[in-house]
Amino acid sequence: MWVGVIHVEKQMESAISTFNVEESPWGLKQGVNYEDFLKIFESLPKVKEILLTSETLEEAREKLRKFAEDLLWKYKNGEIEVDAMDRWLAIEAINVFLNIISEYGEKAAGFSTLEYLWKATKGDKRVLSIITEGFVEEFKHLFKAMAGVTGYSKGWLGPKLEAAGVKFVDFSKIKGRKAALMRSEYLDKVWEYIKGYLKKYPSGLDEHIIEKRKKQREKLMEYWGITEDEWFDYRWQFSHVLKREKGLETLRELNELGIVKVPEEDLKQVELAVKYHIPWGITPYYLNLWDFEEPYKYDRHVRRQVMPPAWYVSNMLQHREDREYYFDFMGEHDTSPIDLVTRRYVTIAILKAYDTCPQICVYCQRNWEVLEPFMAGSFPGWDKIEAALEWFAEHESMLDVLITGGDPLALADKIIDKIMGRLSEFDHVVNIRWGSRIFVTVPMRITDNLAEILGSYIEPGKRNVSISTHVETAYEVTPEMAEAVYKVRKQGIYIYNQLVYQRNVSRRFENVALRIALRKVGIDPYYTFYPKGKIEQKDYLVPIA
């Protein structure tokens, strides 16, 4: 967490100068009172003393450097007795602090975090008015770590278990079968505690959720005047995605009819998104994952994935003209050796076969490129696809090809088959991956025919085919997803989940609930993305410790 202090503050100052808002880019209250600020020094009062008595910034820097280095030596020399883990953390924290106050660190950041700290400690009203709760929390916990008083060795769960009557066992002092039995008993108690958290996160596989969504689906089918067969036909889903003015009108009408409650603020932001061509869109299937009667009570994690908040809309508005470059945080313009190909690694490259999706995720990394669901011209044409495939043919270092977009599994079967056929001609390609959220947004798109096409290109010992997806919450794991996954798994294709770790899915054990639900349907939890650097998505960012 602490290594980001300089970077975060640099972005904070930039955002403050650009936007006249009362919140920081990370949704934290801007401005703190002096008394609250001084609480950061409770663990290390010596730091406050140095800052208060130093007449210049350089004097403060030199005294703090000496204090930190002396403290570091005391830990390394065994003069401060703490648990080994707390000792390790203290040493790491001191090194972070030394980096923060160093002139080199300030040059890299473009400004001085230490100057903010020094002036705020002296009661500078201007500085106190612009720093955030985040700034205060960063340093409060950094100083606690430096002082060795975080309780890190016990973890956050240890004290809670003790409060619940579960005694901590020092297993280093017990050996053999006795230790094994006591450990097993202790872990059973830990599980009972964890279950209490998991109950907070219902799954789309829970019977009462399935029944509720069935009733909601019937209301939507009546509204659109369709049969159940049409609802479960991906072509109907594709053709009725809520987007542009018509999608907004549909959302308003559903709200006015009392079918789906939508807060006025959400409708206002969607209206702005539509007016100024900011990416937005929802599939009817995904709309049915909402709780129609209680917006944001239990379904925040699904609504917020598709309903753009005010900060996002305002940022996208300000950069309408330079969006293509401003929001390209990963620098794809600089890593594309040919159209449709992005290469940042030695043996892996991306083929962007389809530049659109059935649904728009607000936290999308490619919000500079994917502009709306099923946008006209999103398929680049076979000539461009062929040129990109030829590039892969010419580069034998390309062992792994990730086909993405957009969502390429929204393409027609014959195009998917053709791409797979060409890639299978390259002996050096050992893994073909498809990146798709179709299991979440329109799972009925996974037909038996599509699954068979993908599976037909597996050659054991020569070439594998796999799929990477983004399931964010157990609420998105449904019987429809389970059926789609099963069709693919029957073909020998494994599906891996890449969680985008964002604010709305970050509560304790929430991701554990997700992983359990994923295992039930046959998706393997894979790895976690963090949406770093995307300032327009501040409402989705969560601190990482």
From TrEMBL:
Coiled-coil regions, chain positions: none
Cofactors required: pyridoxal 5'-phosphate
Keyword terms, alphabetized: 4Fe-4S, Iron, Iron-sulfur, Metal-binding, Pyridoxal phosphate, S-adenosyl-L-methionine
Alphabetized GO MF terms: 4 iron, 4 sulfur cluster binding; catalytic activity; metal ion binding
Entry annotated with the keyword DNA-binding: no
The UniProt record lists the keyword RNA-binding: no
PANTHER family assigned: L-LYSINE 2,3-AMINOMUTASE AQ_1632-RELATED, LYSINE 2,3-AMINOMUTASE-RELATED
Protein name: KamA family radical SAM protein
Source organism: Thermococcus paralvinellae
